[in-house]
Amino acid sequence: MKRLYFLIPLVFLACKSNPTAVSDKSSKSVSKPLEITYQVKQNDVSDFLKYLSSDELEGRETGTKGIEKAAMFLEDFLKKNNVKPYFSSYRDTLTNFKSPAFNIVGVLEGTDPVLKKEFVVLSAHYDHIGLEKNKQDDMINNGANDDASGVTAVAEMAKYFSETKANKRSILFVFFAGEEKGLLGSKSLVQKLKQQNFNLYAQLNIEMIGVPMKRDYLAYITGFDKSNMAEKINEYTGKKTIGFLPKEAEYQLFYRSDNYSFYEAFKKPCQSISTFDFENFEFYHHVSDEFKLMDIPHMTAFIQEFLPAVTKITTSPTQEITMNK
Fold first, then answer.
1. Which of 37, 275, 279, 293 is the most buried (most CB within 10 A)?
2. What is the pairing mode between strands 170-176 and 119-125?
3. What is the Cβ-side half-sphere exposure of residue 273, based on CA atoms within 13 angstroms?
4. 0.85 exceeded by the pTM?
């Protein structure tokens, strides 16, 4: 997650409506949510996250040898799971960074001859902040929660769709570089997509889901009141999957991750999902953000619970997720 300055008071709140009323609205569910027989494997989640947050990758700072290893790992993963490159290769070169850096972008074409012309973007950033500048015992900011956890979730969703062919709409799977440098990867990519008249339906960006919250919902969404995405996700899962987090509005997190670049360019529902609630994880941008602190059963359950939602987003006959007026 792009650096937050917690001690600077923010005047404008991202959510202006009554939080309680909006949260109650989002908890509605249908009697027959979509049933998914596919099972996310806990060992797969663990193995993927463990490597992506390992010391070998040296904190995955954009433009370093460490993130180059991460890029190769993600390319191999997409290739192994029959997700095709969206461009001529999986690598989308950033146009706004001083040294070579790449988003990793794959695509699964939709199965419906009409709906496949519309795209859903599932994304997370695979960069982090690299090595500490001062000498100390542990110098590697491994970024397990931020955001290797989100990348792991998107990767597992790519595997699911590749195996099940459950998507009628086309899906762009994006792993962003340069997020920690100022959302550079997403800003670069949206410029190219706009030039292609990219037909975006919605973007679901996943940010820091490695540790569960102690709340009566699984996760929160940024920019809660900007669209009906939270309400529709809960309808699709049949659970109180998404709730309203006041801190999200206070810190304006909608504007602080890669969803904002897409929203700014396309003015479509583009939001981030997270379980980092400012109370459950004290090692934000810290060398102790490591694999050993990640809750693998929680992450596996998180991905499993979101499968009905992402499936419905990619298959609904009409665009049910809309911006609020």
1. 275
2. parallel
3. 33
4. yes
- Tell me: pLDDT of 235 over 90: yes
Token pair listed for 319: 């665009």
CB atoms within 10 A of CB 16: 9
pLDDT in tens, 259-284: 999 999 999 999 999 999 999 999 99
Write out the E strands in 146-228: 170-176, 200-206, 219-221
42-213+253-315 domain in CATH 3.40.630.10? Answer: yes
What is the average pLDDT across 6-23?
36
Count CA atoms closer than 13 A to 161's CA, side-chain side. 35
Residue 29 predicted with pLDDT over 90: no
Among 314, 310, 312, residue whose Cα is nearest residue 156: 310
Residue appearing with tokens 């550079």: 184
* Sequence ranges of the domains in the chain: 42-213+253-315
The pair of three-digit structure tokens given for residue 178, joined into one six-digit string: 């340069």
Residue where the block lists tokens 């569960």: 212
Which stretches of 140-232 are assigned E, i.e. beta strand? 170-176, 200-206, 219-221
Biggest CA–CA distance in the chain, Å, is: 57
140 SS3 class: strand
Among 213, 232, 198, smallest CA distance to 274 is for 213
- For the chain, counts of helices (H) and of strands (E): 9, 9
Total Cβ atoms within 10 A of residue 103: 30
Could you check whether the bond before residue 138 is cis, i.e. omega within 30 degrees of 0?
A: no
Q: What is the mean pLDDT of residues 139-161?
A: 98
Please state, in angstroms and as integers, the Cα–Cα distance from residue 261 to each residue in 77, 194, 196, 209, 304, following that order. 26, 12, 16, 21, 27
Two tokens, residue 228: 């009906």
Q: Dihedral angle at the C-alpha atoms of 301, 303, 309, 313, nearest 10 degrees?
A: 180
Confidence of residue 221 (pLDDT cuts 50, 70, 90): very high
